[in-house]
Design brief:
CATH architecture: Beta Barrel
Number of domains: 1
Number of strands: 20
Order of helices and strands: EEHEEEEEHEEEEEEEEEEEEE
Structural class: mainly beta
CATH superfamily: membrane protein fhac: a member of the omp85/tpsb transporter family
Strand content: over 45%
Largest sheet: 16 strands, antiparallel
């Protein structure tokens, strides 16, 4: 479910609405986190915020002591609740440039030491794309259960490059419009210390229209059967989480995996499967610096529609690429990031990585897609250690600026 792409001088910015639960949830989730920032100074949002994220754990003065000190439910005070409604600038290769307006709350409930999030957001970009999303994230029974629910929809004007590494390298696209409605839910239960497992459901109703027909290359026209399509998928989901803090991580491992099966028996137009797995690691090097790393794998079945296969850069697996330019049925990416506290509430990051796409996992190394860049961070919420910042990333024949809440992972 892509967005369009456009180019500034030496800056490639593209956008793509993301079909997965975490992908849609990040916008509203980021706005919910903005609530804490209001009480501490200022807040931004959109770009892979806290793991849905996902994915994505935010932190700015990344090496500072985590702010999430365990607190007994009986000692919690009303000021644990934060709320805000504000406009937020947006720039990201996943969504384009524009703004988001939303309201969000971050609070502790149900005896949880981890903050719940409720967020509502509206997004508009300079491609006349828009999206609306509502998300709820909850930790229940002393974090025995983790529940995320999201609903959203919008209209997205995007560029379609075709499928495969050769199509991405060709760098020729056609404009298309996609109208989408999305509903998703995830419920996990702690089955062992730090290990959570459960179910995930995702419903996606997608309508695609072409603006150039016939296109300059035959493969730039998606199959007619996929232009009006409904995907209803149910599957298994799991998390492994040993992070010392959800929002300002300096040590631990955070791994996620999901395997969804779309089936006509539950309302899908076609039968196919799709799997994703990610693992993040965090290591404190000294009192002021943290080394973080991330590995990602995606694989989609042969009958998966073009909007639900693996899209390089769609979840900040590597920054510097317009999501959707490189897409295929398999993807692998690895990256590392050095995060350092500079002074006051400011910090900086340096990152680099490499990955590839292909029709299967055995061929992803045939498309070598490197990326790297730098970023600046500001700790907007001292209460929860939530940061805002900007990244500049360079990929293969492309580059991009990202304004974000939190870190890429």
């Amino acid at each position: 479910m892509p967005f369009p792409s456009f180019r500034f001088p030496s800056v490639a910015v593209a956008a793509r609405p993301l079909p997965g639960l975490r992908k849609w949830a990040v916008l509203a989730l980021g706005l919910g986190l903005a609530g804490t920032a209001r009480s501490a100074g200022a807040q931004e949002a959109f770009a892979p915020p806290p793991p849905s994220d996902g994915s994505s754990s935010p932190q700015v003065s990344a090496a500072e002591t985590p702010k999430e000190t365990p607190l007994a439910a009986t000692t919690r005070k009303p000021h644990d609740f934060s709320f805000v409604a504000l406009p937020i600038p947006v720039s990201n290769p996943t969504i384009g440039s524009g703004f988001a307006v939303g309201a969000g709350a971050l609070y502790k409930a149900g005896g949880s030491d981890k903050p719940w999030v409720t967020g509502l957001a509206f997004l508009y970009t300079n491609t006349e794309s828009w999206g609306l999303a509502l998300v709820q994230k909850a930790y229940i029974d002393d974090d025995r259960f983790r529940v995320v629910g999201a609903v959203g929809g919008g209209e997205f004007h995007i560029d379609y490059y075709g499928i495969g590494p050769n199509a991405g390298d060709r760098d020729v696209s056609v404009p298309i419009t996609q109208d989408a409605v999305f509903v998703g839910a995830q419920a996990l239960m702690r089955v062992r210390p730090h290990l959570y497992a459960g179910l995930q459901y995702r419903y996606l109703d997608m309508s695609t229209s072409l603006h150039i027909d016939p296109p300059p290359f035959p493969d730039l026209r998606p199959p007619d059967a996929e232009l009006e399509s409904v995907s209803s998928a149910l599957g298994l989901s799991a998390e492994y989480d040993t992070r010392d803090s959800e929002y300002q991580t300096s040590s631990g491992i955070y791994a996620t995996g999901v395997w969804l099966v779309a089936d006509t028996a539950i309302g899908s137009d076609r039968d196919y499967s799709r799997g994703e797995a990610r693992i993040n690691g965090y290591h404190r090097l000294d009192p002021k610096s943290v080394l973080a790393w991330r590995g990602s794998v995606c694989i989609a079945g042969d009958d998966a529609p073009f909007y639900d296969i693996c899209n390089y850069g769609s979840q900040n697996d590597l920054r510097g690429y317009a999501s959707g330019q490189y897409r295929d049925r398999a993807m692998v990416a690895i990256q590392t990031e050095y995060r350092r506290h500079l002074f006051g509430r400011f910090g900086g990051v340096v990152f680099a990585g490499v990955g590839g796409i292909g029709p299967d996992l055995g061929s992803v190394t045939d498309a070598f897609l490197p990326a790297g860049g730098v970023g600046l961070r500001f700790e907007a919420s001292k209460k929860y250690g939530v940061n805002v910042g900007v990244d500049y990333a360079v990929g293969k024949d492309s580059s991009a600026f990202y304004f974000r809440i939190g870190e890429a992972f």
